[in-house]
Design goal:
The protein is α/β, with parallel strands linked by helices. Helix content is 42%, strand content 16%. The protein is built from 27 helices and 24 strands. The relative contact order is 0.09. Bound molecules: adenosine-5'-triphosphate. The site of adenosine-5'-triphosphate has 24 residues, from α4 and α6. GO terms for molecular function: helicase activity. This is Helicase.
Length: 763
Amino acid sequence: MAAQDAAVDSTADSVRDREIAVEQTHLDQVYRRLEEKIHEAEFLMNDAAKRGQVGTPGALAERDAQVFRAGIHLNRLNNEFEDFLFGRIDLVLGKDGERGPDGAYTSVEPADDAIRPDLSADIAETLHIGRIGVLDADYSPLVIDWRAPAAAPFYRSTPKDPGRVVRRRVIRSKGRKVLGVEDDLMRPEVTAFLGGEELPAIGDGALMAALGRARTHTMRDIVSSIQAEQDLVIRAPAASVAEVSGGPGTGKTAVALHRAAYLLYQDRRRYSGGILVVSPTPLLVAYTEGVLPSLGEEGQVAIRALGSLVDGAEATAYDEPPVARIKGSARMLKVLRKAVRGALELGNAPERLRVVAFGRRQELEADELSGIRQVVLGGTAPVNLLRPRARKLLLDALWAKSGGAGRHTDPELAAELRSAFDEDISTEDVFVDFLNAWWPELTPRGVLSAMADERRLGRWSRRVLNPRETRLLARSLRREELSVHDVALLDELQGLLGAPARPKKKRELDPLEQLTGLEELMPRREESAWERAERLAAERTEYAHVIVDEAQDLTPMQWRMVGRRGRTGTWTVVGDPAQSSWPDPQEAAEARDEALGTRPRRRFTLTVNYRNPAEIAELAAKVLRRAMPGMEPPSAVRSTGLRPRFVAAQDDALAETVRAETRRLLEQVDGTVGVVVAMDRRVEAAGWLAELGGRAVALGSLEAKGLEYDATVVVSPAEIEQESPAGLRVLYVALTRATQQLTVVSTGLDAPDGAAVPAVLRD
Ligand SMILES: Nc1ncnc2c1ncn2[C@@H]1O[C@H](COP(=O)(O)OP(=O)(O)OP(=O)(O)O)[C@@H](O)[C@H]1O
């Protein structure tokens, strides 16, 4: 029997080796072709650079465009990806014989006679799928771009709905070497032939292999194993808002990033306006940053944390939950409007304005000045932009008082006199100083600091915030460091104030640009096309498409901030209400609706948890039942047989216990271990792990959003639960970060039972 098994194994091995060799031959051919294309691109770049000496605008614009395109192309080709080519589908004959632009047949459905009555069939087409498309010299497809329509069956086809696909293969390679293949048969009942030989199937599950891999501190792309329900989201038309919900680990973040790459592929011109991905924390930005470059996309996508959306601000501090609740609430809008107007009065202007014009003293009294201010502020225009109008009304009032208007009947002479009067006054230092103090140019930071005075803030927040809220808010604004929630306030203030009215600084002009007059269209000479693209991206404040990750966490004020960045764009919004750390979902929903406007919405739900093994998902589901009764958890796709571990720590031995448990997990997994604690314990917990090396990290509960680790230690669920009104949902996030193992350490606060299970996790 054993000998027979061995024979079967060795046959399987030799079939596997043969199939690997087949794919290796194909990959070799692809690389040969890529090298040819790299040479072509280099030639293009050199050629274009030579033409850069010609001075006509048309030639220069053409040079710029060519160098830019060739540069992008070269950059992509030069990236030696771990798995440049990762997939293959073998298809039977389609209903019609039409080919698409990528050289593949377009038909999704098989021809009527593609499968013979004896369930045998011939493979009519074999397509290889990769990160970018490569055509052979004769325009036959060597590799189909994963985003092309012809690649869709690779992701969409299932045994229930196979279309033309008989076999779907995932190819694993490193650099130029094929390491392995994994097949799924979409029509297991069919015996298919390719070149007269029966089509073999190798391995058991590329998805499972991908999910079992050790995690590092950076997210990987999922391009070789996107699942059908995810593919529907990635390829959804971008005409409107795609709203995607799904539980922890269902691939929302991964799907959102792949969607960005897909949209760029579909309509690069349209998305040259940029795609913004809004992420909750800098940690998640760092974790996901590598995904798009691995998909061959860079430059046009900006991934920004909520605390870094406003230029010049880089906030990472968190407010205490009660303060966050005030700063995030839409009520702040009223307070800020009042603060902006109130701040105008802090300029220490004299009570009355006294100037000398045409040798006579002119004066405006306090009530006249306040009347003028009311008139100017009557509109909705940003306050800084109203300064010229305020200046004009002051001059009008002085002119009226001077009686100058009646001096001439001839309109031309009257106008001349008036302009001389204006000139006389506005060059006077007294007037300039008065205007600067009476209508000072305000900055968002300045107004925010003005709000740190409790009595003043009390005036501005009357009937909106209660005295306790006012005190908390004023106190938090006295801190030097900006918090994540302050950034949304700064952005709102920027809108209320408008840009300062000073003229723009002129860039140094390139003599060539002056000649052509194409200053705005052409890059400056010393700036390469790449640098220019980067500069434009950095200066951008509105985007063609906005992707919001972890959307459930945006406060109303943050929705307003993000909304301003996509006023004319399309949107993809992904989130999970069960993971929301915002206590007032209704208020946030209204702000979200306002940001998304009346654009039509398409809703998608992701249902499978690819991250957590069933054992961990089951424990987390207990918290979900409490946090959101009636809400279905996603179903876990795999199981490890390892149940979560519970450990009770003596209150004076918490550090040692957590350290020991972390060390234990580090020995058991190859990748990372995350230790999740209540926000207050962040710094302390980092100290606990100081000697354990880079694979172990400590994070506060709110920082754990979106991240994942091979194993996690969740410290004191009760502390996490009690730290905010949304604590149960935050705990749900903490418990769903591990791909393999979870240890829960409880303290006295958790009231652990005999098996060290904390009260909140018992049935
Ligand atoms: N089709 C897939 N193939 C391979 N891995 C996948 C697939 N879909 C998701 N994953 C993996 O599952 C994990 C969870 O994905 P992701 O972080 O995108 O989920 P999420 O829905 O955003 O989770 P959360 O809401 O908890 O932040 C990641 O490691 C991701 O790579």
